[in-house]
Every structure is written in C-alpha cells, then in structure tokens.
Amino acid sequence: MGMTITEKILAVHAGKEKVRPGEIVQVRPDLLMTNDISGPIAVDVFKSMGAARVFDPEKVVIVLDHFTPNKDVKAAKSSTKMREFARSQGIVHFYDAGFGIEHVVLPELGLVRPGDLVIGGDSHTVTYGALGAFATGVGSTDLAGAMALGEIWLKVPETIRFEFTGKPSRWIGGKDLILLAIGRIGVSGALYCAMEFGGEAIANLGMDGRFTMCNMAIEAGAKAGIVEPDEKTLAWLNGIRDDISSQTIGLLHSDEDCAYKSVIRFDVSDLEPQVAVPHLPSNVRPVSELKDVEIHQVVIGSCTNGRISDLRAAAEILRGRKVNKWVRTLIVPGSQRVYRQALQEGLVDVFIDSGAIVAAPTCGPCFGGHTGVLDEGERCVSTTNRNFLGRMGHEKSEVYLSGPYVAAASAIAGRIAHPEEV
Amino acid sequence: MEVSGRVWKFGDNVDTDLIIPGQYLTIQDPIELGKHCMEGADRDFASKIKPGDIVVAGHNFGCGSSREHAPLALKSCGVGAVIAASFARIFFRNAINIGLLVLECEEAYRRTNPQDEMLVQPEFGVIKNLTTGEEFRAAPYPPLVAGIVQAGGLVPYVRMRLQGQEK
Ligand code: SF4
C-alpha cells in the first residue's frame, strides 16, 4: 500500500522507508520556530534541562510578534529575554518586533521548503503545510527539548483528504473554503489527523489562499494541514529564493493507493462567502444569513489573512469608499514585506483614504493582546482564525470570522455585509 | 502515585482561552498563572479547588493555542489530574511534558457527576469513582510517552539524554 505525502515526509525524517498511522517516530526537524510567548518559557526549560547550546543555530528561528512592539513592561522583559538568548546562542534567524508575524515571515524568507519538517512553538505552525511541508505546533517544553536534542517524537497521523471541486465566484477565497470544511466536520473533526487539501479549486487557488487554509487546520483539531506541491508552489518559491527547482527538492505527492481515513468532498461552485459566528470557528453560516448583525470593529490581518492578496482584496472593496463612522477598521499587514508591497501598490493610500487605520505588523488584535482590544458588548468582524469567548478582549465581546472581502464590505456597511452590497 | 479529590466537571471543547485567557500570557510565574486558572469558564475556580481535585471534561479538552501556560496553570493551582473524553494533541503533549497527569477515558466523563469523589492510579490507568463505586480504565500511554512520564516529564528525560551524550 502507498503512503500519503504526510507519511512520506515523516518517514524521510525518521530515517525509515515506511511509516504507518499510529506509529510513534523520532524525527529530526529541519527547522524549529518560537516567539515571545512560547519562547521565554522554552528558554527557562532549556536551561533547566542542563542544555548549553541549541543543536543548530541556523535551524532555530525566533520571531517576536505577539506582544510587540512591546505592549508593557512585562512584554518588554519577554522580548529582552529572547533577544539575549538569540545573541548568546548565535541564532541566525532572529526577527525583532514589527518585522512580521512568524507564519507570514518564515515562508516569505524562503525558510520552509516542500518536504521539510517544521516544529513550532505555536499552534498555527500548521500554516507551512501550504508549501507541501509537514509543520506542526508544540508547547514550550517540547520546543526546549527539540532545541537541545535536535529531535522530537511524533505520532504519525491519519490523513483526511478534502476534495474541493467546481469554480467558485470571485468573492471566494481560501478562508471561505476552510470555514466550509470546519463547519462541516466541527472543531474536533480532524483531531490528531492531517488535513490534506486538493481538487480543482485548490489547484486554482493562489499560494496565499493555501496558507490561509492550512493555517486553520488546527481549528478542526488537526495536527497538520497540507497541500501537495505543484507548479504554483514552485513558481511562488522561485520568486523568493533562486536555489529552488523541481530538481533541487523532491516534490512529494500522496500515492494513488494510499490509505486515507476518509475523503470529504465539497462542490464550491455556488458557495456564498462564509462567516463563523461566536464562539467557535465551526459555527459557520453563509454571509446572507447574518445581514442584521451590527458591528463596532473590523480587523484585517493576522497569520491567516494578513498577506498581500488579502490586502488587495480589502482594497478592492474600500477603494473610493468610506468605512462607517462607527466602525474602527484596523488593517495589519502580516509583515514588513507585505507592508512595503501594499505601499508600492498604493493600497495603503486606499486604506487611509477610506478612514481605516494601518498598524505595524503584529499579532496584537488577533488574540486580544493589544491594538484593538474589544470592550463589553462589542462586535468585531475579523479575518483572524479564532472566535473563542473573550479571544479579542472582554468576555462579553463577539468575534465573527470572515475573509477580507466580507470584512471590508462590513466595515463600510457598519454591519455584516456581502461584498456585492457595497 | 495516587491522586484523589473532588470532581470539577466541564463539557466539550474547553479551549485554552478558557483555561488561561490571552491577557495573562505575559505571566510566566506558575503560581500567578494558577490564580487565573479556568477563569474564562468559572471565575472562582482557582479559589474553590483543593489540592488534588480532578478536572473531568468532554472531548477536545485544551483545544486552541499551544500555550503551555494552560497545563501549567492547572498544575500549579492544584489540579491533581485531568480526565477527558479526548484531548487536543498539543495540550496533551504539554501536560505530559510538564508532569500534569492527563488520562483519556470517555466512560469516566459520561458516568461522573460534579463533586463526586474520585481516585486515580496512573500506573494502572485506573480511575475510581468513590461516590458511585464505579471503576474505569484509561487508554494506556504509548511506550515512548510512558518513558517521559516515568522520567517525571520532559525536563528530566532530556537531562538524562544530554548526560548520556557527554559520556
Ligand atoms: S496572528 Fe494570531 S493566530 Fe497568528 S500567530 Fe499571531 S496570535 Fe497566533
């Protein structure tokens, strides 16, 4: 019997010919990643393990993105601790406050290649699956152990294949497809599994949309999200680093006779934009059912939808229009590179003209850390990934998750709106 | 090692934002974290529980972020064990790594009431409901994981391995 792409990547990194779901393997990751949340604890644990040096200073990436630019003195101390660690360990890939959000930054710097195995101290590490890599999140102690030993144990997950067929309308992006899937299977529908996305609609989806989809695999409980690499993947990578071609990397695919746990099919031809209503990412409704929901804030950004395509989508709607006077509209580019690109394309002018605010790249609003924290009773349409109770602030605030088109249209309308309404 | 205490029962999908809200993530001191444990689900949880008390919950316990603050908060506020129908995988790993006892057992979840007295014997995977007299078996740990549990968590485990490398 054949293997899925996930099984193949794990087999290679475990030094085995074959692995089977359920098997526990020791693997050597190509890259480890941490930030200013999981990092400070990982550093303490690393020391308490009696470790002196990280296994490879080129393979540990540190991005300070959550409470940065430093929100308060406590946050400043976390940052200082990570900076000192990075310096003393000679960490090559250290990115300080404002550089960007880890899951936007790592791919755009070309640090992740198809077939790689990446372990990150953050649940949305699953994002890199869009490149045909196996990437999963762990906590600080796991990360510390991996930094010390250069290896970690993993259970080989079963794979659920998600087939998207049909040609969706212009308002549909990766966010709508992944919300559709999570709505169908629920927040634990892919627990411990890898979600493999494929089919015509994925082949036609750009890389940014694929990042969005893999990013939210964790919201269905998955261990990883993955898209088999194709010409689009290669073309995207070629734009970033020049040492990549189909010769220099193995483009892995799932075998025809591999064993999926199940195959779930969606026809997305007539799909309406999707919105997840409070307080679970699986409470998904078509946007037309939510038109009476008044809102107070819109956030467009995060590791889910803070890439250039997302800002282009938002700008398409906001161009020449004004956001509602009573809706704070925050646009947070996912990285400095995205920010500059948006500037060069004139998108930042569009945003400012519309009355929106453009903030420095940060995780801030996404997890209620800073920059756009919600008050009691406030409602926000956000392109982020979680609408858990209190996620963006007060426990009696509400978060509605959508793609950038719906978020921008809602900012103008002052209530949840379909992009065709504005 | 045995753990016994009163049961605090929760439903499905208890996420990490309920266990320790995002605003407390700059806190690294376990004792401080413990004071806010489960605050999103039950504001007074930390002040009500006694050391050894047991959290019993439904499916997908600990879903959401990878914050280790969540199992740390549970451990340091005195929770003796978490028994759930199923766990989110990062939470499960984190708990094993920091030495918070976690056991998977759907039966125990379904047949236990809040405030029941419970006894857990992790070596045998045995869960006893002392109030009803029922006994349950938890799923066994895979060997590699059992090794980490036996060492007392990942810190002593890695320390042992690093010392082995030096020799
Ligand atoms: S943007 Fe949000 S989900 Fe993404 S890494 Fe930051 S806090 Fe986590």
Offer a concise description of the structure.
The complex is a heterodimer of chains A (422) and B (167). Chain A has 422 residues and is α/β, with parallel strands linked by helices.
Q: How do the strands and helices of this protein lay out in sequence?
A:
The complex is a heterodimer of chains A (422) and B (167).
Chain A: H1 5-14, E1 24-27, E2 31-35, H2 38-48, E3 60-63, H3 73-89, E4 93-95, H4 102-108, E5 117-120, E6 134-137, H5 140-149, E7 152-155, E8 159-165, H6 174-185, E9 194-198, H7 200-203, H8 207-215, E10 224-227, H9 231-238, E11 262-267, E12 274-276, E13 284-286, E14 297-301, H10 302-305, H11 308-318, E15 328-332, H12 336-344, H13 347-354, E16 357-358, E17 379-382, E18 398-401, H14 404-413
Parallel strand pairs in A: 2-3, 2-5, 3-4, 5-6, 8-9, 8-11, 9-10, 14-15, 14-17, 15-16, 17-18
Antiparallel strand pairs in A: 1-7, 12-13
Helix pairs in contact in A: 2-5, 6-8, 11-13, 11-14
Chain B: E1 3-9, H1 16-19, H2 30-35, H3 45-48, E2 54-57, H4 69-76, E3 81-84, H5 89-98, E4 102-104, H6 106-110, E5 117-121, E6 126-129, E7 135-137, H7 143-151, H8 154-166
Parallel strand pairs in B: 1-2, 2-3, 3-4
Antiparallel strand pairs in B: 1-5, 5-6, 6-7
The complex binds iron/sulfur cluster.
Task: Explain what the structure shows.
The complex is a heterodimer of chains A (422) and B (167). Chain A is globular, with a radius of gyration of 20 Å. In chain A, the strands form 5 sheets. A 5-stranded parallel sheet of chain A has the order 4-3-2-5-6, with helices on both faces. Chain A has 2 domains: 5-9 and 25-266, Aconitase, domain 3; 275-421, Aconitase, domain 3 (2-Layer Sandwich). By secondary structure, chain A is α/β, with parallel strands linked by helices. Chain A has 14 helices and 18 strands. Chain B has 167 residues and is an alpha/beta fold. Chain B has one domain: Aconitase, domain 4 (Alpha-Beta Barrel). Helices cover 35% and strands 18% of the residues of chain B. Chain B has a 7-stranded mixed sheet with strand order 4-3-2-1-5-6-7. The longest helix of chain B is centred in the C-terminal third of the chain and has 13 residues, at 154-166. The mean pLDDT of chain B is 91. At the A-B interface, helix 2, helix 3 and helix 5 of A face helix 5, helix 7 and helix 8 of B. The structure holds iron/sulfur cluster (SF4). Iron/sulfur cluster is lined by residues 66, 101-103, 122, 124, 302-303, 363, 366-367, 384-385 of chain A. Chain A: It comes from Candidatus Fermentithermobacillus carboniphilus. Chain A: GO terms for molecular function: 3-isopropylmalate dehydratase activity; 4 iron, 4 sulfur cluster binding; metal ion binding. Chain A: It catalyses: (2R,3S)-3-isopropylmalate = (2S)-2-isopropylmalate. Chain A: Heterodimer of LeuC and LeuD. Chain A: Keywords: 4Fe-4S, Amino-acid biosynthesis, Branched-chain amino acid biosynthesis, Iron, Iron-sulfur, Leucine biosynthesis, Lyase, Metal-binding.
